[in-house]
Amino acid sequence: MKKRYKLSEETKQKMRDNHKDVSGENNPNYKNGLILYSTYAHQLEPYEQCRIGEDFNSLEIKCTYCGKWYMPTRIEVSNRIIGINRNGKNRFYCSDSCKQECPIYGQIKYYKGQEGHSSREVQPELRQLVLARDNYTCQKCGSDGPLHCHHIDPVVSNPIESADIDNCITLCVDCHKEAHQISGCGYAELRNCA
Predict the structure, then answer these.
(1) Tens of pLDDT, residues 124-145
(2) 31 and 92: one domain?
(3) What's the domain range around 137?
(4) What is the pTM assigned to this prediction?
(5) Same domain for 141 and 173?
């Protein structure tokens, strides 16, 4: 068993003082609080869509769920690099709502609330293509609120076209709920078809 040593307050203060020389504004990779593109992009580009931001050569990343460009924090970037090296996890999300809506966030094997082959959640890449095609607006009411990608022809009845962009439409949360209340498109009916 390894013996642990307790550091004195004087030693802790010395360590903090030494760290000040390279932290915050003194860090060579720090530029007005932004993460520089040249610092991390080479590690992320094989796995993520990266681009140079308009401010001071900053790093911008595409959100895994909604596909919008945003500037991640240093901790998000560090966690993603660690995740890539270990298990491919720790994706980028622009907000907590995107993180919670995403079917692959925190999942090990299946999408949230689904078991194995019965998952009908739209793939994140397909979802981003459909949202971009529909200009990030609900095609029923015109809302730009939280958006879902809805299969026009259910996956259960037509699995071959499940990844077809022409078989999907952008709907807001409320319109999506309404769509699943139509006869033949209810969640319980679709679940029983599997």
Answers:
(1) 788 888 988 999 899 999 988 8
(2) yes
(3) 119-193
(4) 0.53
(5) yes
